[in-house]
Amino acid sequence: MSSDKAVSRKAVKKASAGKMGFGAYMRRYWQLYLLLGIPMLYLLIFKYIPMLYIQIAFKKYSIVQKLWEMPLAANHGFQYFIQAFSDRDFRNALRNTVVLNLLDLIIGFPIPIIFAIILNELPFVKFKKFTQTVAYMPHFLSWVIIYGLALQLFAPSTGLINNIITNLGGEAVPFLNESHHWVWTYIFLGVWQSFGWNSIVYLAAIAGINRELYEAASVDGAGRFAKIWHITLPGIKPTIVILLIMAIGNILGSNFDRPYALQNNLVMDWANVLSTYVYRRGIKGLQFSLTTAVGFFQSVVGVFFLLGANWLSRKLGERGIW
């Protein structure tokens, strides 16, 4: 009888909740919507309203005219897109951005996954926490500081690494002064700075895997690598796919601080990427329409990459982002 009464009370509560009017509902939950309104207001002010100024890419920019008063650029508004693709520096920056981001994706994407799996397999809790802390720390360093460390390590004549090489009878390696060596140094420093922090997501995904699966695999005689292959990797596969889709969508994006801090005049043929190109032409060169066109091109291509990667993941049987 008591169970029947409990069921009936729940049914009454559900019925009353269903009949709750909009005003009563808002009076009850207004705090939640107020908290939701703060980030929505941020997105509106700093993300969506500035989208109006994408029009600058199609107009002749003038600092003394309002946005809707600016005249349309030549070639039906596509003057600055044509100018960008006719610019050798832009084509070079586009190539560098794609190549460096692809290398970051190919080399840097799997390393946090491997690191998270290794940490999960460590039996010593104190050593595991120490390793995590050491791996996370570079994420909190600015790229100016990282470049200072790179100079101490990789400078041709005074760097620690080159001093060791020359003392062993070898020749100094121009890690920072020769383009091809600079590219690999750039990738190495990027991976070192980010792999510990990026592994947090995978560690959280691993923590969500049912422990009973590992116990059952142990009973069946599965070894450590068999558990990783058949339980851990399938368990974090959805997380890997989502982060991979987001990384592919950002293939034409690039942070400003990393290439700008690490570049020098000797390696500008590979160090100049779209973000530094926009800075030099837009901020320093005052060519706002041209660099807005470049940014618009990056955004459109990024959306297509994102949609394509999401479509492919769903075709392969994964959930994707949506």
What would you say this structure looks like, in words?
The protein has 322 residues and is mainly α. The protein has 2 domains: 2-51, no CATH class; 76-315, MetI-like (MetI-like fold). It has helices spanning 2-18, 22-48, 79-86, 88-108, 110-121, 125-136, 143-154, 160-167, 179-207, 211-219, 224-249, 257-262, 268-271, 274-284, 288-315.
Globally, the shape reads: globular
Number of helices: 15
Integer count of domains: 2
Helix share of residues?
over 70%
Q: In the CATH scheme, what's the topology name of the largest domain?
A: MetI-like fold
pLDDT < 50 runs, ≥5 residues:
none
Radius of gyration: 27 Å
Determine and state the CATH class of the largest domain. Answer: Mainly Alpha
Question: Strand content of the residues, in percent?
Answer: under 5%
Give the CATH superfamily of the largest domain: MetI-like
One letter per element, helices H and strands E, the order comes to HHHHHHHHHHHHHHH
Task: Find the count of extended strands (DSSP E, 2+ residues).
Answer: 0
Give the CATH architecture of the largest domain. Orthogonal Bundle
Overall mean confidence score, pLDDT: 88
